[in-house]
Specification:
Layout: H1 2-20, E1 30-40, E2 47-58, E3 63-76, E4 80-94, E5 103-113, E6 119-120
Antiparallel strand pairs: 1-2, 2-3, 3-4, 4-5, 5-6
Length: about 120
């Protein structure tokens, strides 16, 4: 029960910055995103990891240009390791909806790695 209270408090605390800061992006602003995930079995023999990041620049209050990078690594039974990645340039059009900032976007780039056919996306 104590653990549930801790996670509920943490979830509520994570909403405070969004409630306080409701600024819309403007021309000249930058946006940086970083995310990752990983998984492993009990013996740490089978592992998986992926990471993604992007950096974008607002040319106007609504238009954003940038680059996105992804990479994933899978290590099965510590005998082989495979990686894949993707690099894309993107354009996002942001709609001003006050506290929410939905957007419509498009990207162009390439996918590459050991277990994927190198191709444009």
């Amino acid at each position: 029960m104590r653990v549930n209270t801790y996670f509920a408090s943490l979830a509520l605390a994570s909403l405070i910055p969004a409630a306080i800061v409701q600024a819309a992006p403007s021309a000249g602003d930058r946006e940086i995103t970083i995310q990752g995930t990983g998984t492993s079995d009990k013996e740490f023999d089978n592992n998986g990891f992926s990471a993604a990041g992007s950096i974008g620049w607002f040319m106007t209050d609504q238009s954003e240009w940038g680059i996105r990078q992804t990479v994933s690594v899978v290590n099965a039974d510590q005998s082989s390791s495979n990686w894949n990645g993707g690099t894309r340039i993107f354009f996002d059009w942001h709609f001003d909806a006050e506290a929410w900032q939905p957007y419509l976007g498009a990207s162009l780039g390439c996918l590459y790695g050991e277990t994927t056919n190198e191709t444009f996306s």
